[in-house]
Design a protein that fits this description.
Helix 4 (about 80-115) packs antiparallel against helix 5 (about 120-130) and helix 6 packs parallel to helix 8 (about 185-210). Helix content is about 85%, strand content about 0%. The chain has one domain. By secondary structure, the chain is mainly alpha-helical.
């Protein structure tokens, strides 16, 4: 495996179950809710999409904090690295409160836009009214993952996520159909289960931060502003993902309830796949950030080569497994024959796209670890607007269904792959020192 491979996997392996836990829970959630009928499953797909968009839109709390904390940790400044987590948590709490208020004010129109069927939209709104209260908890956990990955503290997140997901899963199995003396809550039972697990996880991350950090817990506005500068690029990058994924959901909805239900299951499985790939990318973030923080440019480039090798291997493995088991997976995930048939189509597209996507994820991790967020922002937006989105609009217009959606994903991934390979082959991302490039640029602009 080599020394670099061992170091990469020493981070990727503990991160992998943490990343995979949420999509696995959502798949279980989908299976349990799906037994209630395809309309409930379609409603869960719409509601879960909104929650996913809102949670992942703030992923700079994880990725940005990892990049900043890893550089400080590599430079021997662990206390400052942990302090990044304190300030990221203040951002998480503040943004979470605003988001909850905003969703409650717009929940009806929001679900009606995403769901073509009025009953599906109403059920999705009922689910979301409960589940959205978990957004501040999701953001606090995201900030916690960020600073812990930066200082390479990996066991605590694993324990916290296992406990939270365990509570969510048990709650879903019990509350949705109603077991024993517990009344059947149906779809809303899924939302309450989701919320309970998120509250437990967030509480654990807050306790870990208080115990680790020995300094002041008050907001430090200079650090918060620096985090937000990096965050702007990451938010724009993530928004381009979410806009196209939302359009993909409307394209699936236009093809019928069965296609929308199958699209929801495919989305959750794709989320599981990409998070498996992201385990290597997060290892790259932590190690590349630490190497550049310590001034080791050659080591950073060697890590990039190792990431390419291992990401490609993971992508090929996932593609082969998907092709071999697409039919039984579809039957397992859905008790409805029509939904299962449409899911086979989506899994075929997934098997084709996952190999180049693996390389994109790995090299994204390298560049995020280097703090090269501005480049990733620009190239991702271009690929979304001029690659993915046009194919999705054509799919909705011509009725290509799930086939068109996965063609669009393929174009999106190919454009991003060209961009990240070109960047990593050059030297502009190899910025050395404890501070991320965005912070240096902002400080230079003010002097």
């Amino acid at each position: 495996m080599g020394e670099l491979g061992r170091r990469l996997w020493s981070i990727a392996l503990p991160v992998l179950p943490v990343l995979a836990a949420e999509p696995i829970y959502l798949l279980v959630d989908g299976i349990v809710v799906g037994r209630q009928g395809s309309e409930d499953l379609a409603a869960l797909g719409v509601g879960a999409l909104v929650l996913l968009v809102l949670g992942t839109q703030m992923n700079f709390l994880s990725y940005g904090t990892t990049a900043r904390a890893a550089r400080l940790h590599g430079a021997g400044r662990r206390s400052d690295a942990v302090a990044e987590g304190v300030q990221a948590t203040w951002i998480a709490l503040s943004v979470g409160v605003v988001v909850v208020a905003g969703v409650h004010a717009t929940i009806g129109p929001l679900t009606r836009v995403l769901a073509a069927d009025a009953q599906v939209a109403a059920s999705a709104a009922d689910w979301l009214r409960v589940a959205v209260w978990g957004i501040p908890c999701i953001l606090v956990a995201s900030a916690g993952h960020g600073w812990m990955r930066g200082v390479q503290r990996l066991r605590t997140p694993l324990v916290l996520v296992a406990v939270g997901i365990g509570v969510s899963t048990i709650g879903c199995v019990v509350l949705v159909p109603g077991l024993g003396p517990v009344p059947a809550l149906g779809l809303v039972g899924s939302a309450w289960s989701n919320l309970a697990g998120q509250v437990i996880m967030a509480g654990g991350f807050l306790a870990a931060l208080v115990l680790e950090h020995r300094g002041s817990l008050r907001p430090r506005w200079s650090v918060i502003v620096s985090q937000l500068r990096l965050g702007v690029d990451l938010v724009i990058r993530t928004a381009s993902f979410q806009v196209t994924f939302a359009v993909a959901t409307t394209a699936a909805a236009a093809a019928g309830v069965d296609s929308l239900a199958a699209h929801h299951l495919a989305q959750q499985l794709w989320a599981l796949y990409t998070l498996v790939l992201d385990s290597v990318a997060i290892g790259a973030q932590s190690l590349v950030g630490a190497a550049l923080g310590a001034g080791l440019a050659a080591h950073g480039r060697a890590l990039a080569r190792a990431v390419v090798v291992w990401s490609l291997g993971l992508g090929v493995g996932l593609a082969v497994a998907t092709v071999l088991f697409r039919a039984p997976m579809s039957t397992l995930l859905s008790g409805d024959t029509e939904v299962a048939g449409r899911l086979v189509v989506a899994l075929t597209g997934m098997a084709i796209v996952v190999v180049p996507a693996a390389l994109v994820f790995g090299l994204d991790g390298v560049l995020l670890g280097a703090g090269d967020a501005a480049y990733l922002r620009t190239t991702t937006v271009v690929a979304a607007l001029f690659g993915f989105l046009p194919v999705l609009l054509a799919t909705r217009h011509f009725g290509w269904g799930l086939v068109g959606i996965w063609w669009g994903m393929g174009v999106f991934v190919a454009m991003r792959l060209i961009a990240v390979v070109a960047r990593v082959r050059g030297d502009r991302w190899l910025v050395l020192g404890a501070e991320t490039p965005d912070r240096r640029a902002s400080e230079g602009a003010t002097t």
